[in-house]
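Hey team,

Sharing the Transcriptional activator protein Med run so nobody has to redo it. Sequence (367 residues) first:
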Amino acid sequence: MNKKIVALLMSFVMLLSVILTGCSGEKKAADTSKADEKMKVGFIYVGPIGDGGWTYSHNEGRLYLEKELGVETIYKESVPEGPEVEKIMKDMIDQGAKVIFATSFGYMDYVEKVAKEYPDVKFMHCSGYKQGENMTNYFGREYQARYLSGIVAGLKTQTDKIGYVAAFEIPEVVRGIDAFTLGVRSVNPDAKVVVRWTHTWYDPVTEKDAANSLLDEGADIIAQHQDTAGPQQAAQERGAFSIGYNTDMKAMAPKAYLTAPIWNWGPYYAEQVKAAMDGTWKSDSYWGGMETGTIQLAPMTELVPAEAVAKVQEIEAKIKDGSFEVFAGPIKDNEGNLKVKEGEKLTDEQMLSIDWFVEGVEGKIKK
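Structure output:
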């Protein structure tokens, strides 16, 4: 064969080899990049992470998630409960988020809408009730810890008048007020719980003012369903006592603070994201009780009577082993109507939609 032709053929073979090797190397690099890509998880908060309460507790869960699974997280704080949350979710998806936790009740309808538009993204909505193939709802049975904190308040009050600073007239808040009042009256049938609505989640001034108005009316203990320590600080300034919420806020009002129902979201967040990562995630409705650790009663302070400590420990053990139900009959509403008969209890569906106050509550619910 002509030497020139042989040389040309050898050059062609070498060139083809280089091209194929280059293509193989590019494919390998692309595969490695895909394998090294981290799961990205988005969190949407209704308040600032520095609120010390609700949003702070969720953010602690986010940090726990990062530590446990090594995933990348992004978050947006102080997002209003309105259409704006749709844009926030879509922005997070554009950044690569494959799982989104929306942590306030008012986001529910918007989460449902966006979930339908992005079937490959997992959406988890806190405190709501709607579900879809890629949308789940989650919460904790906070009413159990509320009941226990009511026992503390019922045995601590001297005036038999307990103030309750409440956010919005939604089932979550109403259920908590009812459970708290049932706890109060289980040990002190003469006590009353007076409700003051603020229609805020995070407004320290408004919430503190509401607490002061209750103190003016003779309350000597202030409970709350708010994200700030404002009500507890009002109690301390007036020489009264307080029951907190969301986190242990003893440092905010050490001379008033008794205890609080508190949240521990981290393990649940890690469990859900791990399931999304390994392909086992399924939409469901999670409502973890005290036995799961999602909802807890913060350590009672030295201001709590020994009698109350013993009673709380007794009932907490029964709640955890399933032998005690908070909403077991007979239960009347605050207008005297029998709502739960002897031997019966409210179902989860009834608790999730509750819109009436139990006997012992002074207040009204706008419907």
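The mean pLDDT is 92.

Ping me if you want the raw files.
A.
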